[in-house]
Amino acid sequence: MYTLRKITTDNLESNTSLGNSYNVIHREVSYDEFKLHYEAHFNANHVADLDENATKFTKNCLAFISTEEGKLIPIYKNQYNYIMTESGKTFDKIR
To answer: S-S: 7 plus which of 2, 39, 50, 80, CB 3.0-4.6 Å?
Structure first.
């Protein structure tokens, strides 16, 4: 079992169960797939970060985590994002 641990710039912490498997759809690695998930999640086309209609969320979206059940979780640049194992050890850091 994997858990996504997010720590925001306001030091709010959250833990979300990802299940036995998850996928990372990173903007810099899988842009075409990222763009599809971005458009579905934000209901907007992905354009340059300097887009005048961009919000702090759309501008800072770095990646999406897809859970075992298919739920999409946005990952933002200005947060600490860790994948934790069942034992509590850090498995991966998403940046």
So the answer is: 80
